[in-house]
User: What shape does this take?
Amino acid sequence: MKTMLAFIKKEWMEQVRSGQLIILGIIFVLLGIMNPAIAKLTPWLVEIMAETLAQSGVIVGTVTVNALDSWQQFFKNAPLGLIAFIIIQSRIFTKEHQSGTLVLVVTRGMDRTKILVAKATSLVALWSVGYWLSFTITYGYNGYFWDNDIAHNLLFSVVCWWLFGLLMVSLVVLFSTMAKSNTGVIAGVGFSALVLYMISFYPKLSPYTPTLLTAGNALVRGLKKIREYQNSVATTFALIVLCFTLCIPIFNKKQL
Amino acid sequence: MELLNITNLHKRFGNKEVLKGLNLTVPQNSIFGFIGKNGAGKTTTMKTILGLIKPEEGAVKVDGKKVIYGKTKTNRHIGYLPDVPAFYSFMTAKEYLAFCGEIAGMDKAQIKTRSEELLSLVGLENERHRIKGFSRGMKQRLGIAQALLGHPKLLICDEPTSALDPVGRKEILDILKSIQIETTVLFSTHILSDVERICTDVAFLDNGRISMQGKLADLKSSYRREEYLLELDNEEDKQTLLRVFPEIKKNKEGALTFYESEHSLFDVLKFITAKKVALLKVQRMEPSLESLFMEVVEK
Assistant: This one.
């Protein structure tokens, strides 16, 4: 445990000194602010465009926005945050493989599984803090401008999205133990996400695919019920566990 | 007492068989020179000792315990300095040693005293910059410091001096020599003068096998073939000697050399006295490591 904490401390120091932490912080804060900002600005933008639209014969009525519009933006922008996160963190393992810095760590007697767990923990923590920071900011503004109470199943819907992100994080870890460079990691995660989307096009399979978890908008608007997501949550959990279990033997056999 | 024992080690990379049944024994408290040409398999052998490479056949034992690929229990007794050590460049030397100590499970006070001790041993005690800006020599010295942190029984250095200038090389060799009392050192190299300077034992690696190993002094004396060198003033006398003693050879510098087994020294000297040949010098040749190495490699 002590050795793992020492490794996590090193990861933290690296995130801070390489500037990755600050970049991620800025991205997630910006996304958090953008969601209510876009919602707030919509009526004003529509008003500006109304005149030109009226000239071409389209009549636009007054637009009212509420917290639901801001939450819609939240679910629209969450993928941006996740993609940025994956790209920035795709080098977390491969950088060490390429430079050979892990050789001295392993030859010092540190268990490879501990290295893996330390890195995975750091990634999960970073994703969680970033995501929930973004959520808290949006939640705060929404409460200030409008009323969050009109959103259905709000907590469940955002937990679902977080869980989907967690699956992507576990894929980053899995592909990091296999790929030689970060392009390999990004390609692997991207391809997996694509496969998941393709599967979700089959109506029979779609309730089971993790991609359903990203459909938070339907939840907050009350168009879908929590129990419709149960199977998808279960598959996602299973896949996360599978990724984290698979990467241990792969990493143990990896030539450093 | 043997600290390291390798038996019948085989390793192939694709079609290339790098190690073909390597046997090696390193006695305790020796400075062991592991000599071989570039690509002879020195690094492969060392990485196998550290459990970083999986051999096809054979066993490695460190301090009596078997090395298992991917597992690193035996590494607790080993300090390792790779040929090009890679550190976390965002740390300072002190921070890096602290990190190394922590992952090895040392306690805070221990880490502090040991890192100060080692940083002054390698001359980095006043270095406050991050490793990013270190020169190769500085990195190599930090590499030795991190390798010695846990008081290892065995220190493995992979060509520690190859990339350094003469001053840097001397510094590294002096450090290695100074730690012999508590640590056995195994270092690979192709620089023979480094070996002659500090090693007590040597092994020659050639074509995937150890072709010769033992105490440096023993090897030298067993390979001493009683070679003599004669320097004469007069060219005519040289020709006469070459005619009378057919096995005598003339070297590049114009001096004559021969082995006792071919012509007895006394016969030659008798001839020289009888003919009143003007003699400048008679010398018994000491075998150099280089001549040993060449002989081993050419065999």
Summary: The mean pLDDT of chain A is 92. Chain A has one domain: 2-35+76-253. Residues 2-35+76-253 of chain A form one domain.
